[in-house]
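P.,

For your records, the input lines for the assembly:
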Amino acid sequence: MSSVYLVLPVVLPIVGGALMPILHLPDKKRNLLLEILVLLTSAIALLCVYRRPEAGFTLFHLTGNLDFALRLDGLGSVFTCLIAILWPLSTLYAFEYMRHEERTTSFFAFYTMTYGVTMGIAMAENLVTMYLFYELLTLVSVYLVMHPMTKKAIRASRTYLYYSIGGAAFAFISLIFVIVFGDTTDFILGGVLNMEKIGNNVSTMLFVYLLSFWGFGVKAAVFPFQGWLPKASVAPTPVTALLHAVAVVKSGAFALMRLTYYCFGPDFIRGTWVHFAVMSIAMLSIIYGSTMAVKETHFKRRLAFSTISNLSYIVLALTMMSPLGLLAGISHLVFHAVMKIGSFFSAGAILHQSKKEYVDELDGLAKKMPFVFTVFTLCGLSLIGIPLFAGFVSKWNIAAAAMEVGEQYPYAYMAVMVLLYSALMTAVYILTVAIRAWFPDRGKELHSNEKITDPNWEMKLPLGLFAITVLVFGVCSEPLMQVFRAVVQGTF
Amino acid sequence: MTAMYLFLAAMLLPMLSGLFLLFFQGKLKNRTLKCILIFLVMALTAGLTVRLMCFEDYQLVLWHLTDKLDILVRMDNMTRLFAGMTVTAWTLGGVFAFEYMKHEEKEDRYFGFYLIVMGVLIGLDHAGNLITLYLFFELMTLSSLPLVLHTLTHDAVMAGLKYLFYSVAGAFLALFGIFYLYAHGAGLPFCEGGYLMVLDAYSGSGKMTLLVLMLMIVGFGTKAGMFPLHGWLPTAHPVAPAPASAVLSGIITKSGVLAIIRVVFYTVGADVLRGSWVQYTWMTLALITVFMGSMMAYKEQVLKKRLAYSTVSQVSYILFGLSVLNQDGMVGALSHFVFHSVVKDCLFLVAGVIIYKTGKKTVKELTGIGKEMPITMWCFTLVSITLVGIPPTSGFISKWYLAEGSLQTGIGGYAWFGPVVLLLSAMLTAGYLLPISIQSFFPGEGYHYQELRKKEPNLLMLIPMLLFTAAAVVFGMFPGRFLGFLQMTAADVIR
Amino acid sequence: MNLARNFVENFPCFSIVLCMVAGILSTPIKGNHAKRITLLVVILVTCMSAATFLYVVSTGTSFVYTMGKYPAPWGNEIRAGVLETMLATVFSLVMLFSLLGGMDHVFKDIPEEKINLYFILVDLLLSSLLAIIYTNDLFTGYVFVEINTIAACGMIMIRKIGRSLVAATRYMVMSLIGSGLFLIGLAMLYDITGHLLMENAHLVMNQLVQEGKYSVPLLVIISFITVGLAIKSGLYPFHSWMPDAYGYSTVSSSSILSSLVSKSYIILLIKIFYRVIGFDNIVNSKIVDVLFVFGLAGMVMGSVGAIMAKDIYRMIAFSSVAQIGYVYMGIGLETEAGMVAAIFHILTHAITKSLLFLAAKGLNNVSGRKRVFYALQGSAFRNPLAGVAFLVGSLSMVGIPMLSGFISKLLFATAALGAAREKVLITLIVLAVSTILNAIYFLHTVVRIYTPVHVPEEFKNVHVRVSKGAALAVFSLICMNFILGLLSQPITDLIQVGIAMFA
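Structure tokens returned:
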């Protein structure tokens, strides 16, 4: 398949989204058109993955040896598939959710443009291209956070903006160093650094890695730059779910994967002080996220903190600097996306149908919305890591990776302890919600007079699919794991 | 093959029936029919389980979870013991509940989860490797939770959450160990006597392995109410409906014991622990729990809570017996497992009868109740004597073996400590159980003989109690074959 | 063809003279006509500079052109190489667009009888800019620096509101201090070397350095010239005149002043560094290290000042302080790559800053001419063109790829890696920090202008008709920004060639 087709999944949504405000269509037609556009893009993207073009496609030659170019390799294919499958479902969900909101056209315009930009990140051939789309992602998604146009939303969007641009500014430093000290800015498994060129500057290089780890890590909400994520939960649920559980934050994790395994190379980092530093950062983020989630009573913010800690599971896996670590990171990237989007969408459905935002208002609500709460409970059990659910499989992988590294560097055993602590906290903050919803205290039958029901099919379909996926992957993950293994070994 | 289908049937029949009941809560109007159907399910499950036990020992892969992790089932003497006990107690508890639940609401939910837990426990008892064990362990916690908080009072819900989080925390401690063992090549199916010593490919370090084992013992010990993670038990068991308390104390706590047995005797092997700090710690923790549980029971006034503390203490007899790592100790432990289950089930059922018929909850109120329900209180008395360990009851046999096992450990002075504590605890047990019996039959002056009315419960409640009592007494008088079975089992796993 | 070749070589001198003549001619004419003359002149100058540029690129060498009849060592010379002609072309383009963009305001802000004076000043300014760019001797340089100052002052002052007068006075004072120091330095230089023509002075300078004579006076000369020009170009901490000067003049003036005038002094400084004193000597004197430090300080403090600014013009003016800091930092890196980056940034900043000022004015207009930020809420919807212009300008300042600011950052950072060891990390970190600071105030304003909430009642339905000239100006500046962002490679190469020719 010719590599020109790689351009389509990136450009189509951006152009299509940008055209929406100009076309002035009535809502129903616009929704239909957008869904078709998104499905078409997903189809082309999946086709590109299936019949992968070997070569890349240079969009534009920037300067010197820097180009904007797209190419699909193993890791990029995984991320592309993930987004391609999740986006149409969440667009469908968003239609129902935003039905009674204002300014929906501009909302969906930016929502769709974000799709194209995220595709750009997934398919970037080199660091410059990824950096371009990374900055663009910030710009297109900031409107979505701002959308409610309340003071809180605007302030949250500014926080998001500053954190992101700040992170990118530090990530920029790594770009420069790779340009100067690397053979190429392309992504090659194992890294592209030229040890001869580096010479005595190894410690500077390591420090630069740390800076850019934090830089790209802002989007992945690593400590201490995670502050923007809970604030951004004020955005409408389709935004928080997709962007802040899938697109934006996973782009951050993805970028860290590229940075660590495809630019600097794990062998360069392993065993150095930076190795321990980034492991510790990941562990701190996990502990912070899980603990704050327990204390938080606002439902969506609780899930936002949960995202922070789960993202750092992925980052923790990465920081093992081993192929098993990358494997675990990829598996949790995929599984967590599904689990978290299921959880957020459940929360969104609850908010949409009953206007209840705080966990202590949810007692006994499961009776009225059994479908939604079943999905939530299933996704929640997966997040905790109960066997037979997808979350257990990825947690097992992370622990296995840590155990392997632990033989050489016992510090990694701490990682497993942190993982289990977080699992316990997850049990607390998820199960208290689920149990109180299904088994309310006597006398706390609030809501008995209120008319609250399960949402309609546009919301139920994605919810159901996510719950089923979580179970299927929990029980039968082997085929997918084989694909991931091939990616890690470079044979996919 | 047939074994696999039988097993799946035995496990899934109650689970699916339970789910069915949950979905169609309140739809089945004919209560008698419903109870008969539930009874049939339980009996059928019991029958299937017993049929399974007649097979030769086997080991089967049920499902490949991932390329390295399999869901495995096995049949050996330990399985027979635990599974047999589970289905028997469960069925009897279920029969009792038919009558008891008239007193509570939402019995469909109760029976639904009751049946699901039955299925999960069958899976647990048949687990063939650590990961299968862990899977069913977590499922058991989750599915038994609704039984604890069934009454939905604020206290019940809080107790339920406490139960949940302690259990999950304990399970995660054990999970650390499972991660470690699997990562270092020790993720094999269970094998009598353990395989760690003979495993070439085991890459874990000695010190780390010991630490990990300690974590696993403490972690799984949470379910068994071992100090220091016992705090949930006295809160959770009393607040559940009585038949649920019975099976919680009688069977579910023993699943923690089973897990420890599988880890110590079927995965790593007793020799790994023998003489190490882990063994000492384990013994100490068990003894502390034995003593502490008895003390707390002695002071406690609420009957069900007293029985819960008693469970804390008694289950640690079992753990102590295991911790001495010799055959006599194990025989003592396993026999105490059976006897305590039988006894504690009966005691809780009695407590349930008392609440059901009179609403009385504290010990003080029980003066003269023996006059009102003599059969019930006779059952109570007989099993209490068993528990104290007075010959010729079964309790005496298990205590004897435990003492023997303790003295044989060969770790010097500590060996004497065990029997001393056991003796003290026996005295305390007498102290917290026998006075109740005495008071109930000989109420003394303040009692109003005129208002005496017979409040004996009906057959549905009486029969289970009588069966338990009979078992307690009979096993004591004719222990031969049973002990022979246990000795054979112990010899298989400990050299 | 010989004749054609030589004819083109006349263009630089011709441009300068043309501007001055136009200025003189405009004296008796009314404002409208003066405007037309000026515009015509600027367009002609642009074309001529472009032609010269192409010519010089094709021949590959620079040429020297003697003006007037005085021979060495006093005479007037100009020299046109790749760099000079490129700068001349870009500067005249920017001036053209600044004028077009701010034309409406020229007629609104300035009293009618004075409009032609304004255009005269513009003509003079253009001539002096060109002269400074092209000059090859110190005397011409100094003379036109003074003309530059006066014209600039006039352009501020001509808007006769109280604040403008104060701003202009301040500007005048600071500028003259700078000029004074510059003059003293020049005088000493002439004294020591006995030459005013750059090449000749350079030869003598080299000799003196080799012999080791006059080392202290040399240091003094370098310092005075540097500080003098630094003050005039607004290097931190000599920047205090900038915010007012840019804030209170008419928009064309602010645009031209911030984009072009301050840069011309930097260009002169670079020229003197290379052609008169010799870059190695400069390095040895450690003056570049001082420039480096002040440049870094400017990058941070300028942005801090912008964050604290209460109205949009002050914010943009402080941003200029920061950007000039970037340029000096680039010079301070002491490498060729650093110089290329600095010059590229001069081009970038010229284009972007005028764009920002035009945009700010446009937003201001639909906000009741109030400058404070709350008035600008949602103004991008009332004046879409200004909104887009501000957006593009801000994104370029922050360094989003595909825009010129990103290339500047890329060049600075890559240059930093080749610089002296101690300078590498601090440069990169300050670069990152200043990006963050830039993001804070620029993007805050972008968010503000695009969020139509809490819009003050009075402005809700205000719309404005944008004149064709302004639209063209804004559009062209945006295009130039993208060109620099996407097609920077040839431009960077040419700058490199130009610097090589410089020496």
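Two observations worth noting. Chain A touches chain C at residues 60-64, 66, 68, 128, 131-132, 135-136, 139, 142, 146, 149-151, 154, 157-158, 161-162, 165-166, 168-170, 172-173, 175-177, 179-180, 204, 207, 211 (CB under 8 Å). Residues 230 and 301 of chain A are 5 Å apart (CA to CA).

Regards
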